[in-house]
Every structure is written in structure tokens, then in C-alpha cells.
Amino acid sequence: MNYLAVLLLIVYATVSINGEDCFDKEKLNTFRKELVTKATDQVKAECKKNNSESTDEQLSQCAKKKGMDAYEECIQDNPKEDLTKTFSCVSEKLKINLDEDFATYNTTMSDLSVQDKKKTVEDAIAPCADEEEKNIHTCAIDKLKEVCPDIKKMLGES
After folding, report:
1. Domain boundaries along the sequence of the chain
2. How far is CA 9 from the centre of its chain?
3. Which residues form the signal peptide (predicted)?
4. How many percent of the chain have pLDDT more than 70?
């Protein structure tokens, strides 16, 4: 299983609970695929630094191994299985930078939201603009789980 897909699924995918979806599933799936590609490309670039002669297949295998190793390490460091912390941990260990500036991130999340949840999502993640956090995603997920029952359920906190 692709570790990045799993972690990004945790952060971005939403499951229907009582019709309370915060995000448009089709847009979200497209966005998630783009994030997986972006993250994988960053890890493959690190692999290429260590062996510039590697084929794309070898780079993919290297990225997968690095990802699984980081994931296993993060699970050991975080036995309570806080998925938000696990995602953040793996991103840090692999030096994955998926964040953009907050304004761009906020616009993206609003665009992914279902029409009647746009304001809810924007208001929920607004405090993340003032955070001194390296990872906007972690801050946003913490805020979104307070207003999106699907996120809370997905994180096993309901």
C-alpha cells in the first residue's frame, strides 16, 4: 500500500456521515492524487541525490522504502495512533513540504468544499494563518475535525 496515499487519505479524504460531508469527493480525489504525486516526487528526488544513475522504477522503490521506514518509525514514536501526528511525523522525516502560503491553502480548501460548507471550512482553518506551525495541514485538520463530523470520525475520535 502506498504510504503517502494512506497518509494523505487520512488528511484529505472524507467519509459520508449523516450527509455532513465538508468536501466534494471528486475534487478531493483529484487534489489528493496531485498531493501524492508531489510528495512522492520530493522523496524520489532525495533518492536520486544518493544514486543519480537510478531508473524511475528504482527511484519509486527507494521512495516507497523510505516512506514505509518513516511510517514504521512514526508509529513506534506515536503508539496512540494519532493520525494527524503520524502524518506530520512522516512528512518531517521525509522532508516533504506540501504547504503553500496560507492564502493559497485556504483558497484550495474552500474550492474543495461542498457549497454549503465553504464558509464553515474557511472559518475553521482561519486561525491556522496565525500559527507558527511548519505544517498548515496539521493545524487545519485539528480545526476541521471540530466542525466536520466526517473528519472526526475518520480520525477515530467520534
Report:
1. 3-155
2. 7
3. 1-19
4. 75
